[in-house]
Amino acid sequence: LSIAQEADVQLRSHAKTHKIPAIAHYQHERSNGGGIVCQKLSEAEVMAASGIDDIYLSYQIIGDSKLQRLVHLSETVSEFSTTVDGPGNIEPLATVAKQQDAVVRVILEVDVGMGRTGVAPGEPAVELAKQISAHPNLSFDGIMAYEAHVKSRAETEDDYEQLCYEAME
């Protein structure tokens, strides 16, 4: 935390493992103003109901009823953003946001080698960013990537460093 404070960088703590509002408040207070990350919509709703007002929902949400809840949640906290990675979750989110006359901040997930979620880097990611930006009820808020594959594939410290650079590239 002290390194982040010195660099004036906000940390965003993950509430996935504990799912306890009291711990999330503790993390939020000590994160240099960065809020928390939730993996599931229901977790984000609990955190918002407990007074956490800066939430990033890091997994794609599908289904009309969940998207309605997501858009409502985005309007009830000070800072909220969610993740998208393709037209299959961009278009439905934009439709529900329009129906509710809301603007939802979205972060585009880019696949940096794990092969689980995210759009391919380069032109495919640029095209999706343009698609997001074209929707008046969505606000393109940046990109996110998760390089979890690096640790399991690296056999040496040099491998680890090289794989990290490849993911960042």
Given as residue ranges, the uncertain stretches (5+ residues, pLDDT < 50) are: none
Largest sheet: 6 strands, parallel
Major sheet: arrangement of strands: 1-2-3-4-5-6
Order of helices and strands: HEHEHEHEHEHEHH
Number of strands: 6
Describe it.
By secondary structure, the chain is an alpha/beta fold. Helices cover 46% and strands 17% of the residues. The chain has helices at residues 2-6, 21-29, 41-49, 64-76, 87-99, 123-134, 149-153, 157-168; strands spanning 13-14, 36-38, 54-57, 79-84, 104-109, 138-144. A 6-stranded parallel sheet has the order 1-2-3-4-5-6. Helix 4 links the parallel strand 3 and strand 4 (79-84). The longest helix has 13 residues, at 64-76.
Topology:
Layout: H1 2-6, E1 13-14, H2 21-29, E2 36-38, H3 41-49, E3 54-57, H4 64-76, E4 79-84, H5 87-99, E5 104-109, H6 123-134, E6 138-144, H7 149-153, H8 157-168
Parallel strand pairs: 1-2, 2-3, 3-4, 4-5, 5-6
Helix pairs in contact: 3-4, 4-5
Describe the structure using short key phrases.
6 strands; globular; six-stranded parallel beta sheet; alpha/beta; 169 residues; 8 helices
